[in-house]
Specification:
Blueprint: H1 2-17, H2 20-56, H3 61-110, H4 125-164, H5 166-182, H6 190-222, E1 228-231, H7 232-246, E2 252-258, E3 264-267, H8 269-286, E4 290-298, E5 301-308, H9 315-320, H10 342-352, E6 357-361, E7 367-374
Parallel strand pairs: 2-4
Antiparallel strand pairs: 1-3, 4-5, 5-7, 6-7
Helix pairs in contact: 2-3, 3-4, 5-6, 7-8, 8-10
């Protein structure tokens, strides 16, 4: 009996995967066949009864007419009953379970539960609808997660900003109190007063720079991508031209393309160039003599690797380099306008384009920054 169960299972799978139109046609054909068979059987039985009853008992004409009416009506009765039964089977076997599964998924989404995954698997219209609903759930879940990440990132930015402005505020307060205390007594020379005012001005400029970085970060969060159709080779050329223009005169640039299968793509070139420019600028700051750039395309994902021959990332930098206001105390950084937001902005740009920022050290030495973007 195993082969019979196997055949029945294959038949169920075929019915489940076939399209709704084909399944409805099959059920209607089955209903037609059953109704014709029942009609044929009923007509034969009624004819046999008529002959037997006529031979044994003389029948009145009214009774013969009654039997003939039954013979004429039975095809319609059987057809109606067969269609109703076939429709019931069609709904039960083809639609009810699928619609119940999809309805349950929609109810979970409406209740805010985005962890419910549909187990319905078929190749018919209901299976495609289930896949569309599942994609919608994944999209909503991803958007909710991104919103949560943005909220957490904003809280970290605010905390970092509040922490970093303490130093210039403390310095300005100290110099101000010093001037208020000693200037009226005449114990401070004019040169000393000017030096203190210069220090206060420097801290004020630093506070202004901090406010500008906050404005920049908020602008990045509200940034929308604007994709357009373009050739993949055009993106590579733009990245190469930008790198050639940004590198120093003594820095050697090696550029490699691995764009197999990429032709016309849908992407936001300005966003991509800004993200790549940020990591390339970071590489220029730490490179000794060489920077290597590799542009790679795999399965609708564009990844740009930027490697420098510097000292590489420290363990702390690998963990926190993409955090806002991260600095490792390189000499002169506090005065050169570098506030540690370049990689943070790069991370935001990559995530907005469906990608990510990754940092690691090369086995050949130096640090590697990989920025990826989802392109169609």
């Amino acid at each position: 009996m195993d082969w019979l169960e196997e055949c029945a299972e294959k038949l169920r799978q075929y019915v489940r995967n076939t399209t709704a139109v084909r399944a409805a046609a099959a059920y209607l054909l089955a209903a037609l066949a059953v109704s014709l068979a029942c009609t044929r059987l009923t007509v034969n039985v009624m004819s046999l009864w008529s002959e037997v009853l006529t031979e044994r008992f003389p029948m009145a004409e009214e009774k013969l007419h009654f039997l003939m009416k039954i013979e004429r009506l039975c095809p319609w009765l059987y057809m109606t009953a067969s269609v109703v039964v076939a429709g019931r089977f069609f709904v039960e076997n083809k639609m009810k379970a699928a619609l119940a599964e999809i309805g349950a998924a929609v109810k979970h989404m409406a209740a805010g539960d985005l962890s419910y995954e549909m187990a319905w698997q078929s190749e018919d219209e209901f299976g495609l609808l289930a896949k569309d609903v599942e994609r919608l759930r994944e999209t909503i879940k991803r958007d909710k997660l991104n919103q949560w990440k943005m909220g957490e990132e904003q809280r970290r930015i605010n905390a970092a900003f509040a922490h970093d402005i303490r130093t210039p505020l403390t310095v300005m307060k100290g110099y101000t109190e010093f001037l208020k205390k000693y200037v009226p007594t005449g114990k401070v020379t004019e040169q000393a007063i000017l030096e203190k005012l210069d220090r206060i001005s420097e801290q004020g400029e630093r506070l202004l720079s901090f406010s500008k970085t906050m404005t920049t970060l908020q602008t990045m969060e509200k940034l929308e991508i604007h994709c357009r159709k373009m050739e993949a080779a055009e993106i590579c050329k733009s990245i190469r031209d930008m790198a050639e223009g940004m590198k120093g005169e003594e820095t050697h640039l090696s550029f490699r393309e691995d764009m197999e299968g990429a032709e016309a793509v849908l992407a936001d070139p300005e966003l991509i160039l800004e993200a790549v420019g940020n990591v390339f600028q970071n590489a220029c700051r730490y490179a000794r003599k060489e920077i290597a750039v590799t542009v790679q395309y795999r399965k609708n994902r564009l990844t740009v690797y930027v490697r420098d021959d510097g000292d590489g990332f420290s363990e702390r930098a690998l963990r926190e380099a993409a955090a806002v206001y991260f600095r490792e105390g390189k000499e002169g950084e506090a005065q050169d306008g570098h506030f540690g937001i370049g990689l943070s902005i790069t991370k935001m740009l990559c995530e907005k384009h469906g990608g990510e920022l990754e940092l690691f050290n090369s086995v050949e030495g130096g640090g590697v920054a990989a920025v990826s973007f989802l392109i169609a």
